[in-house]
User: Fold these one by one.
Assistant:
Number 1:
Amino acid sequence: MQHQFLGFMIEEWGALIVISGSFLSALGWVLNKTLLPLKYAIEDLTRTMEEIREDNERRDMEAKRLEGEFNQHLIEAGQMRVRIRNLEKEVFQDGKGGK
């Protein structure tokens, strides 16, 4: 007596299971070989983007600090300019008055 299920004999079902398993295993291997490098590339890209973002934040902070220092130098230069003008007035007025 031969056993059938959904029109296939038991031997045919066994063959279908072996073929399907082999196909799925091969498909898994191919996907693993192709998608694993893509996964690593995405991880590297994500890490690089994070490093760039952190570097950009550091550069922004440094630029703000330097801008503050530059503004302080401008204020000091203005103060020195006023002192020089006052000294020039004092020297030239004394020089004109003494002659």
Note: The mean pLDDT is 89.
Number 2:
Amino acid sequence: MTALAGGWVSAIASDPALLAVVLLALGLLLTTTLMLLGTLLLSRHHERRARRAARVRQQWMPRLLGMLTGADDDPETTLPRLARRDMPALVSLCNALQDTVRGVSRESLQLLAQRLGLIPELRSWLRRGDAGRQLDALTCLGQLRIDAAWPDIQSLMDQDNTVLSLTAARALVNIDAPRGVPEILQRLQRADWSESRVTALLKEVPANTLIRMLQQNLLTSEARAMSAPALRKLIRITNSLQPHQVEPLLQLARERFPDDAELRSTICACADGPQWLAYLRTATTDEYWPVRVQAVRRLGRIGEPADRIVLAARLEDPVWWVRYRAAQALLGLPDAQRQALQIMARVHDSQRVREILAHALAEVR
């Protein structure tokens, strides 16, 4: 047998191609074995972590619910033991419960966090943790309204990670809305902060606080130096949340950026009141067709019967959407003469006018 083995070894050693095949096979075998061992170890690690998380939930769920509902607010009560490695599970549980149980006092939870030494741990996550830990820490610190963490949270608002920066903004608003809202308004130039996300964030601010902050923001030099895209975003957000506060922003946009077509379109979409009628009438002939669309739409809502002539002229606009919105606007004007429009739809010289009026009339039958 020894001689046979020696023969195989000799044969392999003398044949480079066979030696390469054998070494490759051994390498694959070793790699596969290591992958299996790694998978096994990782699986056991996840199982242990899941068991620890379940134990934390079992021990802490009743206590946290009692604190949130006021049934257990004794600051001297004995607490279950909590290892440092179990803090992430407790923070996740605390965040989930606070999102579920709203409108309750946070004082008992603040005392609990202090007793457990959780605040320094959460702040260390903000500075050195991975993204998941940072998000959990931001949510928890914001919900607990930990003012001491403000500098750490504020520094994350300028991170490239969109979710992380918006979560930091939300945390600041939760801690102190009057201080947090200006921080958000100063960063509206961020393209990744969409209008819908910022609007959803500012919806959490009490209405009177938001109104005051918007009014104060307009008086700052930073606001008056705001870029056109940021101002456009602020106008749309304000019009969505507090439409009666948008007028000064519209005036600012008209003064500072008269040549910005997208801002002109935004002004037309948000303009309200007779002071804007002259602007809207002029905008119906704007060279940028989205401006014409918004102008005729708005005239249909706030225009006067005399604007029928202005809108009728746009029924022959080269852009279908302008013609369509003009036809709708004519039907929406005060004292709209539906019968006259029906006649025009049948006998007008222009096929464009006949077709668009017939289309609009058919929609309101």
Note: Residues 68 and 103 are 9 Å apart (CA to CA).
Number 3:
Amino acid sequence: MFERFTAAARQVVVGAQEEARGLRHGHVGTEHLLLAILAGPDDPAAEVLIGMGLDHEAARRAVVRLLGPGDDAEVLASIGVDLDAVRAAVESAFGAGALDPPVDEGPRRRGWFRSGGSKPARSPFGQGAKKALELSLRESLRLKSGQIAVGHLLLGVLRVEDGPGLRVVTDHGLDPAAVRRAVEAKLSPNGSARRE
């Protein structure tokens, strides 16, 4: 499926992973796809949302309000613990990345006959994000696009009815149907979404 993605759409998928990591969330959801779309303000799909008043910062605040920051940062901050200060102190003492999780180097042999095994790598994408990616392919096929652009990803996010991405859009006062129509217009052959 990813061979159909434009370079910009692939960057959104990578950006969604970065957004999730930046918020310290353990998975990638529709909200992270939405944030990654808005991180590229020159893309026609992002232009639609920004033109309607939803930019990256507003969406990020909404995601934090809905889901909270990961790793209980808010709870710790409420009792006076500054995680950024703790990270800076640990990294100054032990080096950059000292608090990052270790990289899995594959199975290690333990004992004489045991392999120790390792858990299979799990996709960081949650069910909502997987559904949005699948729906973006369906949107591309429906619109006879031949490729999956960033606009198709946004249409997929908007179709995940219980997804936080859609909730961010609606909580901001935007009508998902109006957003869909505007994005579809941008994706049409006369629109400007033919950017790679």
Note: The radius of gyration is 20 Å.
Number 4:
Amino acid sequence: MIVSFFVGLSTGMLLDKIVASIQAGLGNTLRFIAIVLGLGTMLGKLMEESGAAERVARTLINRFGEKNVHWAMMFVAFIVGLPTAILAGPVFATFISKKIKIAPPQSMTNT
């Protein structure tokens, strides 16, 4: 934001135009992000409350195995991230990851 202000000054923009330009740019960006994150959060909470997140977690654990849960989470993040413009994917995947109990990795020195 500070850089935007100085670029506006250096190009000869009037002070009121600089402020209006910064407000419009930030407002449009934050509005889009807030809508996507809000919808992703609502969908994730609905899945958690309905038991769908538990079902997805169990299915992925059965398919990938308990030792490969990290690959299952990567798969979920990839699939969910595609249709949600990669913004709400991590929020949505958080509700599923809460249902997967991931054991801490074994130390490689204890083998």
Note: DSSP finds five helices and no strands in the chain.
